[in-house]
Automatic annotation (TrEMBL):
Pfam families: Hydrolase. Transmembrane segments: none annotated. It comes from the Bacteria. PANTHER family: ALPHA-D-GLUCOSE 1-PHOSPHATE PHOSPHATASE (PTHR43611), FLAVIN MONONUCLEOTIDE HYDROLASE 1, CHLOROPLATIC (PTHR43611:SF3). It comes from Ponticoccus litoralis. This is HAD family phosphatase. SUPFAM superfamilies: HAD-like (SSF56784). The lineage of its organism: Bacteria, Pseudomonadati, Pseudomonadota, Alphaproteobacteria, Rhodobacterales.
Length: 199
């Protein structure tokens, strides 16, 4: 089945996410990296993407300084997403011009999502169906989040091409019947969408 619906991941596909920038005003990069490694920021962020609150995650840390730093993350979140990913918004506008339905499935904390929208308000405007992981308690690559999206959008998996910068997430989408494009840059994405007759 030729896909008719385009389903975007957002972070590092449409919006460049650099979490270390939340602390760039206080520490040099080496100190930030050491802090993020020490608290296993990646794992904590995934818990937030599933619905945990950063305040609660911070309170569980042993070091008072680390607790304070992590509590700064949500208020400073806008600093971590200052830029668009080059080229992909041009493709979004071309898809919109062709009346291709656009959707999104994003691993994103419910707390930081509104902060991201302050920087990139179009994210609240361009998607017919948007699933934010922190709001539903599921994260990619759990197949359940893709099935939830299809149910909410009222579309068959086979009608969708899913775009994500992580191979595991693309593999999970394929596992439920979606087509998928592993995002490596706008030029390759344009070629993939063109091959599928969407551009």
């Amino acid at each position: 089945m030729t896909p008719t619906q385009v389903v975007f991941d957002i972070g590092n596909v449409l919006v460049d996410w650099q979490p270390h920038l939340a602390w760039a005003q206080d520490m040099d990069r080496a100190a930030i990296d050491a802090f993020m490694q020490r608290i296993d920021f990646g794992a904590l962020n995934l818990r937030a993407d599933r619905g945990a609150r950063f305040e609660d995650l911070a309170e569980a840390l042993d070091d008072p300084g680390d607790r304070t730093r992590l509590k700064q993350y949500v208020p400073r979140y806008a600093m971590t997403v200052p830029d668009r990913v080059p080229g992909t918004w041009d493709l979004v506008d071309r898809l919109i011009a062709r009346n291709v339905p656009l959707h999104a499935i994003t691993n994103w904390s419910l707390e930081t999502w509104p902060e991201g929208l302050k920087v990139h308000p179009r994210l609240a405007e361009i998607f017919d169906t948007l699933v934010v992981s922190g709001a539903v308690g599921l994260i990619k690559p759990d197949p359940a989040i893709y099935r939830l999206f299809c149910a909410r959008a009222g579309v068959a998996p086979e009608a969708c091409v899913f775009i994500d910068d992580k191979r595991d997430n693309c593999d999970a989408a394929r596992g439920i019947g979606m087509d998928a494009i592993h995002f490596t840059g706008a030029d390759a994405l344009q070629a993939g969408l063109t091959d599928r007759g969407l551009l």
